[in-house]
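Supplementary Methods. Inverse-folding protocol.

Structures were first reduced to a discrete structure-token string of length 270. This string, shown here, constituted the complete conditioning input.
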């Protein structure tokens, strides 16, 4: 539960900056109360704003009811407040709403609606929405299983998480990724032949970004540009595998850095 509370705090902190000017101070107070586990106060401060239509307060109120913090757990009211916030394109409310549809909490179980909510949440930029969308593709939640697309959305979420971690530690170090020519052992062994043939293309090119964290782990492989948008899933998934392979080694000078890599696929290879 402590880890869950920490994740919820991070999400709600990101919403604070989007609060309206008129209600920002009161919402900040509600958020601060939530963070210090004074949930009854958080609810009392958030509820009037939620009634007025503030989507950030609606999301916070939904969390309080869903987790039974400062009030008896009420999945129906949680679903109601998440739905109101989601109608205003709250990315985080959509992510929570997707989970409620997936688990049948506060509403009838509906995997298709869960998938749709995760998709919209991811499109709006929610890291949790991206993670849940990857999981949906991974396990076939409301959609046909697709390990390539699952890997793509997992990487999107990881990239956002890494940048958040780095920004929190050293804000001044956030900058554009450095260009890098990959060693052959770090490149995918084969191109995405089946998809390229389906699209009727013999070559595909673009650029990818990724980071190497302080522990030497590859993080957040994402596309920067791809010649055919449909190939972005395979490009990310293929490089995700190759960059993390045992043959692809990263020395100490690479750690804590972001890189941009050009690539070019041919039907016959590189």
């Amino acid at each position: 539960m402590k880890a869950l509370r920490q994740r919820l705090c991070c999400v709600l902190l990101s919403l604070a900056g989007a609060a309206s000017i008129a209600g920002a101070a009161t919402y900040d107070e509600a958020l601060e109360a939530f963070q210090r586990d004074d949930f009854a106060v958080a609810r009392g401060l958030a509820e009037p704003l939620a009634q007025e239509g503030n989507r950030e307060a609606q999301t916070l109120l939904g969390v309080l009811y869903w987790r039974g913090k400062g009030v008896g757990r009420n999945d129906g009211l949680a679903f109601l407040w998440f739905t109101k916030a989601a109608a205003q394109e709250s990315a985080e409310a959509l992510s929570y709403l997707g989970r409620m549809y997936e688990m049948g909490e506060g509403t009838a179980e509906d995997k298709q609606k869960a998938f749709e909510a995760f998709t919209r949440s991811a499109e709006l930029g929610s890291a949790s929405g991206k993670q849940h969308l990857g999981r949906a593709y991974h396990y076939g939640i409301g959609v046909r299983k697709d390990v390539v697309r699952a890997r793509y959305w997992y990487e999107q979420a990881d990239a956002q998480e890494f940048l958040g971690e780095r920004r929190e530690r050293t804000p001044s170090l956030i900058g554009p990724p450095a260009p890098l020519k990959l060693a052959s052992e770090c490149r995918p062994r084969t191109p995405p032949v089946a998809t390229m043939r389906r699209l009727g293309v013999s070559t595909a090119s673009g650029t990818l970004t990724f980071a190497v964290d302080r522990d030497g782990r590859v993080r957040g492989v994402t596309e920067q540009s791809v010649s055919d948008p449909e190939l972005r899933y395979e490009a990310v998934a293929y490089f995700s595998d190759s960059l993390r392979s045992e043959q692809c080694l990263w020395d100490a000078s690479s750690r804590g850095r972001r890189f941009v890599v050009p690539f070019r696929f041919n039907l016959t290879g590189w």
